[in-house]
Amino acid sequence: MQSEGPAVKQTPVVLIHGAWFHRSSWEGWAERFTSHGYAVCVPGWPGEAPTAEQVRRDPGPLRDLGLAALTAHYEKIVRSFDNPPVLIGHSAGGLIAQHLLGADLGRAAVALAPLPARGVPLDHGRPRPWSLMPADSARHPCFEPLPRARFRHVVANAVGEEEAAKLFDRYAVPAPLRLLADLGLDRTAAGPADTVVNTANSARGPLLLVSGQEDRMVPDAVTRSVYKLYGDSSVVTDLKQFADRGHSLVFDSGWRSVADHVLAWLAANGIEAVAAQG
């Protein structure tokens, strides 16, 4: 009688998007990681409509969303897995991914152009997207839109105008002012996000920080400051800088090179898509 081989189990991957972007900004990554054998989960924010266009038409369900509630939303999702997932976050999602990893809730984390947490030194600049926007929030009492021209200048500055316009139509959404205040991104904020990342946790999984050197929303210098905060950690903590890339590096036409670097990094750290069980 032929014995059955060991059972196999896919490694889960949770993709976490940031403010001003829809969860569909991960569509390429979801396909790429699924094709490599990972079990991919792309949860939206609580109340997020299926498309960016729908959110732009009616962002109301996101009105009261703050950072604590958003983090708790993802924590609940992460805890639902039998095995700790790989956490991959962009912008505010990168901050949440680090927070969850520091709380021992992920097997590994990748933070792409992450917003800085409390305690990150910002001598070389800080995210200031609002300084490039018109003071028109009175028309949007609970939301801060990212107008098309500002999206082009702040997010999609490293691609051509035609591509930037398509990216806006497909992925851009207004952000709740309550969340922006919590993230330190409202017009009056004096510092980084009001959340703490446990950078001293020596039991956490590996961490990869990624920056675009042409990023105007989260400058490369800010990501380097985040990296330095981890100091001489005994746990794998790597930094990858992509030249000529902006904040749209996860969903513009160059996303594959970033995703493939992350896939190679996971493999190099022994985090395979499928693991034998038993």
Automatic annotation (TrEMBL):
Record's keyword terms, sorted: Hydrolase
Superkingdom of origin organism: Bacteria
Gene3D superfamilies, sorted: alpha/beta hydrolase
Molecular function in Gene Ontology: hydrolase activity
Domain AB hydrolase-1: 13-259
PANTHER family attached to this UniProt entry: HYDROLASE ALPHA/BETA FOLD FAMILY (PTHR43194), PIMELOYL-[ACYL-CARRIER PROTEIN] METHYL ESTER ESTERASE (PTHR43194:SF5)
Name used for this protein in its record: Alpha/beta hydrolase
Species in which this protein is naturally found: Kitasatospora aureofaciens
